[in-house]
């Protein structure tokens, strides 16, 4: 196992890249799969909205809420694909420990949801 090193990100490393170099690093397969999932989800929301005989573009319908969430998801997707995630490797073990601690905390303070109760092994 290697040593953890935190290196500062150099703005010149990504500012000086040409558009072609950035496009070659872009994962088009991930984008296609995300677009397919988005399309399937919107088709399902559309069919659920029109099954009651109402307009799909009616305020508060499942389809309009799906469109709103799709727009927010596209913005989040664009921001996350532009983000260089490789520097997060330096925080891998602390983040892993934090996740394990939060899972243990859920077991300790969790009580139940909707009338269901937790079965505690101790």
Description:
The chain is mostly helical. The protein has a domain at 12-85. It contains 5 helices and no strands. It has helices spanning 11-15, 19-25, 28-50, 62-82, 92-109. Helix 3 (28-50) runs antiparallel to helix 4 (62-82).
Structural class call reads mainly alpha
Cα-atom Rg, whole angstroms? 22 Å
Order of helices and strands: HHHHH
Oligomer: single chain
Mean pLDDT: 77
Shape: flat
Range of strand content: under 5%
Largest sheet: none
What is the end-to-end distance?
Answer: 36 Å
Count up the helices: 5
Strand segment count: 0
- Unreliably modeled segments: none
Helix content: 55-70%
Using brief descriptors, characterize the structure shown.
122 residues; mainly alpha; 61% helix
Entry summary:
This protein has helices spanning 11-15, 19-25, 28-50, 62-82, 92-109.
Write the layout of secondary structure elements.
Layout: H1 11-15, H2 19-25, H3 28-50, H4 62-82, H5 92-109
Helix pairs in contact: 3-4
